[in-house]
Amino acid sequence: MAVKTIRWKNDRVIMLDQRLLPHKEVYRVCRDYKEVGQAIREMVIRGAPAIGVAAAMGVALGALKSEGKNFDREFERIFLTLSKTRPTAINLFWALERMRKIYTANRNQGVEAVKRLLKDEAQKIYSEDIAANRQLGKFGAALLRNARHVMTHCNAGALATAGYGTALGVIRALKESGRQFDVWVNETRPFLQGARLTAWELKKEKIPATLVTDSMTGYLMQKGKVDAVVVGCDRVAANGDVANKIGTYGIAVLAKRHGIPFYIAGPTSSIDLNCPSGKEIPIELRDPKEVSHLFGRPLAPKGTKVFNPAFDVTAQDLISAIITEKGVINPPYPHNIRTHVSH
Fold first, then answer.
1. Rounded distance, CA 94 to CA 271, Å?
2. H/E element holding 82?
3. Is residue 62 a contact partner of residue 78, using CB atoms and an 8 Å limit?
């Protein structure tokens, strides 16, 4: 992608403001960890892997800006601030733990050494994410090689990662393999990540795509117009249950009803072995105005009660396979996920 989701430059974290896409390409410059935290919370940057990268860079930025007098106390403040930004995506906490391990293992070398090592680790997390997505894409493309009509939900592309993408990484790799196919893009209410972001990415990549409303999924499957579904993930529980953008569960149920393979694509950093099942995954509740308003304009009568969970959980028996940078995980998931992660 010519457009960079997030990058480190001159000891600043620069992010593409995804709230303004597809109409404006505006980059936000974060000069301290609080601004990074605010950007994550307000969805300037979103997508589980991208949130993890942003959190790591936020820690590094916060450490660099610390004067060193109360470095340990300041580090805990940075860590706590970033950990409270968004609760569902496990990549956030995975990245923060990696940064904490660097801090703990090297604290005795002095403040300046720790600052340098934290900055290096954030860059490593960024680079590893892109490499993982490319590898994941190749494994996924092999699974989807005979699919002519692919459906995806939300945005799991370059914008949701450090670059390349998870679900869209699979689609990109499928194109790179020379296959002919088209993509059904679900609009993904209420934040419209599909309409605003996925359609934008696919257009840039010149991949044939058609935008549809979420409620058209059943119709398309009933008419035989979907050969496979591939979506990203925000957290994979140890038993194979998966949290992803709201609406994913309904698509999985419909895919099962129509005998259509339903694939999850995500790096191993999205797997949470400490979470036994989907029941334990915290589900973020977001601003009611995301549902009641559209681009600042009210859709519903004033005072209408609104419920706005950002994610739902798809049970593991609805999932055909989970694709990571290490390969493809097939059922039974409780056993195979642990083996896959430790391999």
1. 9
2. helix 71-83
3. yes
User: For position 69, what pLDDT does the model report?
Assistant: 83
Model pLDDT for residues 23-73, shown as the tens digit of each residue: 999 999 999 999 999 999 999 999 999 999 999 999 999 999 998 789 999
140-342: CATH, from 3.30.565.40, 3.40.190.10, 3.30.420.40, 3.40.50.10470: 3.40.50.10470
What are the start-end ranges of the E strands in 196-278?
Answer: 209-212, 228-231, 235-237, 242-245, 262-265, 271-272
**290-313: string of b/e by CB count within 10 Å (b at 16+)?**
bbbeeeeeeeeeeeeeeebebbbb
Separation of alpha carbons 248 and 263, rounded Å? 11
Q: Is the pLDDT of residue 138 over 60?
A: yes
Name the 3-class secondary structure at 178: coil
> Of all helices (H) and strands (E), which one includes residue 13?
strand 12-16
Residue 33, number of CB atoms within 10 A of its CB: 26
Among the residues of 282-332, which ranges form H helices? Answer: 289-292
Q: Give the CA-trace dihedral at 56, 61, 66, 67, to 10 degrees.
A: 140
With 80 as the cut, is the pLDDT of residue 301 above it?
Answer: yes
What is the spatial distance between Cα 67 and Cα 100, in angstroms, rounded to a whole number? 19
Q: Evaluate if pTM is beyond 0.90.
A: yes
- Please tell me the predicted confidence (pLDDT) of residue 4: 86
Per-residue pLDDT of 151-172, as tens digits, reads 999 999 999 999 899 999 999 9
Spatial CA neighbour of 341 closest among 330, 329, 105 = 329
Contacts of 247 (CB under 8 A, 6+ apart): 153, 154, 186, 188, 189, 214, 312
Q: Which of 32, 182, 234, 312 is catalytic?
A: 234
234 is catalytic: yes
Q: Name the CATH topology of 6-132.
A: Four Helix Bundle (Hemerythrin (Met), subunit A) (1.20.120)
Task: Write down the pLDDT at residue 2.
Answer: 60
- Edge-to-edge strand ranges of the sheet holding 182-186: 209-212, 182-186, 149-152, 228-231, 262-265, 321-324, 327-329
Residues ≥6 apart with Cβ < 8 Å to 338: 238, 273
From-to residues of CATH 3.40.50.10470 in the chain: 140-342
